[in-house]
Write a structure and sequence with these properties.
With about 450 residues, this protein is an alpha+beta fold. It is built from 15 helices and 20 strands. It has 3 domains: about 5-105, Rossmann fold, CATH 3.40.50.20; about 130-200, Dna Ligase, domain 1, CATH 3.30.1490; about 205-445, D-amino Acid Aminotransferase, Chain A, domain 1.
Length: about 450
């Protein structure tokens, strides 16, 4: 096991990793920008190192400064959390070169799955069903038109690198295609430094289903069921639940088995999430995230497994602690991402939290690094906490979630809590009848504040 882990992140995920390390008896190092000097994980860590000014490029994304922090403190492992450098193959390689363990997959697997074209080809080779589309990058508008006509409109143009909805454009007809291609290329170049794009069939009313997997790099792999992440805005997840109300047990075990078998063939190491679009009983691979997900707590709630502890164990060289037959699913869990944003316009709302009263009780978990008096900086993602609720059934979970949202009080800033209060009372959400376009249609049909 490791002696000391440096946590190369901030906010709630940094605190989540810190807690797991402490439960394993591992010393912790918190790195922080000057804007995060008063962050909770910095206060609770055994050591802390300031790595630069607020801009992420000068601090949390600055590899030389992170390496220096490792050397200064003697950290023998780095947990990247999610975001920032968590899926940066070069960072993983550099750490290994300095004999520091990257708590995550190999750099090779990060690189393969980080390139969506290579990831899709790998998925096909491993027997994972994929969305119909181009075999590789599309460089010519004439070629794109030919592919689109073969698939049929509408089609989706996607950046080969990156994520988060950037570099994704829908072309609903021939007239839209040229603009979709040029816009997607421009966005991809600006966001990821790579203007390569590819094309897929655009599904009309799919759900976003993702399968949580774990491998130990020794040829063993398991799946931990699926999460439904269909409530999205601009391709950003807003609320997640497990298990999906759209699947039955047979579908659940079939797709989980396919994914786990693929990870065994790949000899994948650590936590990973294989994401699908699901429509009319069919699954279509879209990408794989080679890291911990924001929404991992809902999987922890229904399996009773600590995913971060398992990440650390596996990175230290231990085999998987569970076999597939050991994994059972109990009840239902839902996560609401609490953002420092106006409820409908999603305009960022940084500032000082003057009052903080999170909910509690049986089956309730709040993952957050903020506290009363904390000043939310304007430089980073607006996620300030996650409310995770677990119940014996989906209905019990929804009722518990209603109660928790009514108890959750955050003053001094605006948050998305009022939006969740609306969503969980809507008949479509209560009935589980929603797809990836549902939330944007709901927001467009309702009056906006702010």
């Amino acid at each position: 096991m490791f002696d000391k882990v440096l946590i190369a992140n901030r906010g709630e995920i940094a605190l989540r990793v810190l807690r797991a390390c402490k439960e394993l008896g591992i010393a912790t190092v918190a790195v922080h920008s000057t804007a995060d000097a008063d962050a909770m994980h910095v206060r609770l860590a055994d050591e802390s190192v300031c790595i630069g000014p607020p801009p992420a490029a000068e601090s949390y994304l600055n590899i030389p400064r992170l390496l220096a922090a490792c050397e200064i403190t003697g950290a023998d492992a780095v947990h990247p959390g999610y975001g920032f450098l968590s899926e940066n193959a070069r960072f993983a390689e550099i750490l290994e070169h300095h004999k520091i363990t990257f708590i995550g997959p190999t750099s090779e697997h990060i690189r393969i799955m980080g390139d969506k074209i290579a990831a899709k080809a790998t998925a096909i080779r491993l027997g994972i069903p994929v969305v119909p589309g181009s075999k590789g990058a599309v460089t010519d508008d004439g070629e794109a038109l030919k592919i689109a006509n073969e698939m049929g409109f509408p089609v989706l143009v996607k950046a080969a690198s990156g994520g988060g909805g950037r570099g994704m454009k829908v072309a609903r007809s021939i007239a839209d295609l040229s603009l979709a291609l040029s816009t997607a290329r421009s966005e991809a170049k600006a966001a990821f430094g790579d203007d390569a794009v590819y094309m897929e069939k655009y599904l009309q009313k799919p759900r976003h289903i993702e399968v949580q997997v774990f491998g130990d790099g020794q040829g063993n792999a398991v799946h931990l069921g699926e999460r439904d992440c269909s409530l999205q805005r601009r391709h950003q997840k807003v609320m997640e639940e497990a298990p999906s109300p759209a699947l039955n047990d047979a579908q659940r075990m079939k797709i989980g088995g396919i994914v786990a078998n693929a990870m065994r063939q790949l000899k994948y190491r650590g936590a990973g999430t294989v994401e699908f679009l699901y429509e009319d009983g069919e699954f279509y691979f879209i990408e794989m995230n080679t890291r911990l997900q924001v929404e991992h707590p809902v999987t922890e709630a229904i399996t009773g497994l600590d995913l971060v502890l398992e990440q650390i164990r596996i990175a230290s060289g231990a085999p998987l602690s569970v076999k597939q037959e050991d994994i059972t699913f109990s009840g239902h869990a839902i996560e609401c991402r609490i953002n420092a944003e106006t409820p409908r316009t999603f305009r960022p709302s940084p500032g000082k939290i003057t009052y903080w009263h999170p909910p509690g009780g049986l089956g309730v978990r709040v993952d957050s690094g903020v506290y009363q008096g904390y000043k939310i900086p304007p430089y980073y993602d607006s996620l300030i906490g996650k409310l995770i609720v677990h119940g014996k059934s989906r209905n019990e979970c929804l009722m518990r979630l209603r109660r928790c949202l009514s108890e959750f009080v955050i003053d001094g800033i605006e948050t998305t809590i009022p939006l969740f209060n609306e969503l969980i009372r809507h008949s479509d959400i209560v009935d589980g009848m929603y797809d990836i376009h549902w939330l944007e249609k709901f927001l467009a049909s309702e009056p906006k504040d702010g």
